[in-house]
Amino acid sequence: MFTQGIILVAAVLIPVFDIFRFDISELKLYLLRQVWSFAPQGQYMSGAGGDPVNFIFKGIIPFILLFVSLPVWGAVLGRFLCGWFCPVGTIFEIGDFFRRNLIRLKDCRHSSRSENKEPHWAICLYGSLSVILIIIALSIMSIFFAGLIIAPSEIWRQISALELSPLFIATVSGIMILIVGTYFARIAFCSYICLFGITQTIPAIVSPFSLRVGFDTNRSKMCTNCKGCERACFMEIKPRTMVKKVNPKCINCGKCITACEQELGKKNGLFYYSFGRGEIY
Ligand code: SF4
Ligand code: SF4
Description:
By secondary structure, the protein is an alpha+beta fold.
């Protein structure tokens, strides 16, 4: 969670530090603090001393290198990068956390139906707070990501003066809808749409030595059927019951490992990381 939090904060700050943004009013692409202007000014490059070759080496090639390295990451670590570093996955996990609390609001209305050990007031409080927090978190994230097409200084000016332009409102609303829509399609998105994910998945499936999460079938009788591993899995895999040797949806996040250790004790869980094909669910 620590690495995911750091990467998510870095991701929302990307436009603030001109790492990547396309300023729609200036028609300029900011990439790694260098500028590619699409305005017809006769001179297309600024930044980096106006040197296009420098721009390509510093701005374009690092992204190409990152992308072509993904199959290698996949062959060695499976979808580890998705599980530990992807900011989109982190947003989905935050959404999942709120969704679980929202679902508990049903128990708040019908206290007699609650199977939870928590006090009734706590369920109601956390459920209600999650409604408020999800709106705040979604708004903040959408405003930051709006910086991808509107200059962050302009966003700050509009918010502080309470003069929200139609472009700002449309952009923030569009990003909110996109985040919510993608969240509901998150399994399909992570498994079949995200190019970064697919680029790692295929080598991870064919690689004979990539990192995977295994289930210790020899000790499976110790399973208490608490279903903690299923609840922890944001990709909605049922880790105990998978029969395939390699599950292409698994992002090696290790949350099932932690959940099982919480139930059975540290170093006593039934899931483990291992390299190679081994005894993998
Ligand atoms: S099966 Fe385990 S490691 Fe794989 S995605 Fe689910 S929780 Fe993460
Ligand atoms: S978390 Fe461990 S003990 Fe609980 S259901 Fe999953 S495998 Fe069984």
